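Entry 14. Structure prediction run on the chain below.
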Amino acid sequence: MRRPEFIAHQGRHPHGILGAIIARVMAKETAADNKQAIALLGLKESDHVVDIGTGHGRSLGVIAGLAPAGLAVGVDNSEVALNIARQSNERLIRAGRVRVELARSDALPFPDASFDKAMAVHTLYFWNPAEPHLAEIARVLKPRGKLVLGFRPAEDACVTRNFPASVYTFRSTGAVEALLADTGFNVDRFKRRDVPGDSMVWIAARKR
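Output returned:
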């Protein structure tokens, strides 16, 4: 079923009452995908991690639990989504283990080499062009820092054709690997979901 364009815009940038509802729905829909991305990060106890397009921020609590001596930072350009993230991580924010920042992913408010790891799940579609966003993530990662991207590839036409091209840009797995290479990353490995008819892809890459 084709997604209406106004819903697609809310997926990209939740706002207003409808945006708050959609952000909470997305929290459930993307939980498994975020869990896989976190697993691929290979977190260590003291890692500083940034979740790009954190949205509802459910991943931040999981990351904080796996890196108890580190820091989990969520970045999103939607104040509505970040309000939900703040509410669900209130205790961890007070303890200084989680932070949330209102920002665009192509203009991150962090010094160079601030993070050990980064993840971005279902955000790649909204980066057009993608190079400024990937280059900015590379900037804030430490040398050999790891990035995990989770996305539906253009090859999955049965799913991607239901999303309006005016909002979503789907790329092939090969095209994403090329973008990573062009913005300072070496592709470590990639994983497809082992479910028939579902070609969700996660790519792990290291900053050169």
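The two ends are 41 Å apart (CA to CA).
Filed with the rest of this week's runs.
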